[in-house]
Task: inverse folding
């Protein structure tokens, strides 16, 4: 594989960004989408607590709020964590705190996601996205247990628990600062305190206040439903783009050229679907995002055309699924295969 792929790719994308008045950051369209999503989240939460008068009304609102929160996470939280919204780090930092309001520490997310997952994609020893759920075998290097034979059947249930259990795994990471099998420098005391205070605020907003207004039983049902929907779809969006047969890393394989490694371990899907392009915050362009994680998703369609052309010239594989459904099927085919052998 020709190492000139990386040189030419970076050069062409740099020229593209230099020609844009907002550079690599968000433009007014992206900021407008972010403002609408934040407003809808606040409106949905307020309506759930103060305007809905029946359980069925609250179920409908919780389902709507789960999808709004999903889109908020993909378009605002994730982009802010990468520093892609504003050239001012403080603004990105403030917007990243929306993670914390939903129980997920933005400080620990940056470590796990940007420092480990993005740098060591699909490398079993480093990437927490594939090696921190032992009941799901996502790597050839992971030990196969007998129960893995059924993992394609029970994995959706585990995916539905991801956002529900994430706050507790954050707390474990504070005590034992590791991602997968690798340690990281623990946060300072002030950061740890901030993480804990945000956890308290999250559960006040998500459980204590709703329970006071509508009762504990109904609150727990709605809380579980919200996270089941949010966690399942969020997990699928991220996992189908990496855990597929073309993205397998053979045991003992070292890292190649960084850009080529991202091409080999990532996949795009539904790039021709304008609704998904708009609502998924560019994460259906997962290959493009991994090649240029510090670029606003608004540039991904243009960058993808450059990637496809240069990949073809240099003989670099590029994986694309025509639809989200096709990507999901490919993901579960691999889970089934890894569960059997």
Result:
């Amino acid at each position: 594989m020709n190492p000139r792929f990386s040189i030419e790719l970076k050069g062409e994308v740099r020229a593209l960004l230099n020609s844009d008045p907002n550079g690599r950051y968000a433009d007014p369209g992206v900021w407008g989408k972010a403002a609408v999503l934040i407003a809808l989240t606040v409106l949905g939460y307020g309506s759930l607590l103060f305007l809905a008068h029946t359980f069925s009304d609250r179920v409908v609102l919780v389902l709507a709020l789960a999808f709004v929160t999903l889109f908020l996470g993909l378009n605002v939280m994730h982009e802010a964590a990468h520093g892609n919204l504003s050239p001012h780090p403080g603004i990105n930092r403030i917007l990243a705190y929306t993670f914390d309001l939903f129980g997920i520490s933005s400080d620990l997310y940056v470590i796990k996601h940007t420092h480990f997952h993005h740098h060591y994609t699909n490398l079993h020893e480093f990437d927490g996205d594939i090696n921190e759920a032992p009941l799901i075998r996502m790597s050839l290097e992971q030990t196969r247990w007998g129960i893995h034979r059924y993992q394609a059947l029970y994995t959706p249930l585990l995916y539905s628990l991801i956002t529900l259990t994430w706050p507790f795994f954050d707390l474990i990471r504070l005590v034992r600062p590791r991602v997968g099998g690798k340690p990281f420098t623990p946060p300072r005391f002030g950061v740890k305190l901030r993480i804990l205070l945000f956890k308290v605020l999250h559960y006040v907003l998500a459980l204590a206040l709703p329970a006071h207004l509508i009762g504990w039983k109904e609150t727990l049902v709605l809380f579980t439903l919200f996270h089941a929907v949010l966690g399942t779809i969020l997990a699928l969006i991220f996992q189908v783009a990496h855990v597929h047969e073309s993205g397998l890393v053979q045991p003992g394989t070292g890292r190649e050229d960084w850009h080529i490694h991202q091409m080999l371990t990532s996949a795009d899907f539904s790039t021709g679907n304008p609704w998904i392009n708009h609502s998924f915050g560019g994460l259906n362009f997962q290959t493009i995002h991994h090649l240029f994680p510090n670029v606003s998703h608004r540039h991904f369609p243009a960058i993808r055309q450059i990637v496809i052309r240069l990949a073809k010239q240099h003989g670099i594989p590029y994986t694309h699924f025509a639809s989200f459904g096709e990507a999901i099927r490919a993901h579960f085919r691999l889970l089934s295969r890894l569960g059997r052998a």
